[in-house]
Amino acid sequence: MSYSLTDNTELKCDKGTTPAPITVTSQSFMSIGGKLQATEEDKQPNSNIKPFGICSVLKSSCTPSLVKWQDTSVFEIDGKKELLDSSTCQCSVGGKISIVNSTQSFVKE
Hints:
It holds the Pfam family DUF4280. Helices cover about 0% and strands about 30% of the residues.
């Protein structure tokens, strides 16, 4: 069963050293438990996703350069597919961004 992602869900890059939360800016009206739902458009560096510490590829700041979210929901918010706990995104530098399985409050899709 997949779960929808919300604002402040922790993400990780397999080439970075630290997790970073996602900040939802792609939409402002669909929320779960008072937190905005994330969509495939939430992929801008520093705006939606902060650096993941030090990048093992570049040996410098792990600033994400996301290509496209994969394994998104079939459901859309304002024409943008929802992100799920199974969603991943390739970084153009070589890393893979995924969701940290922690104490997040996911909602079943």
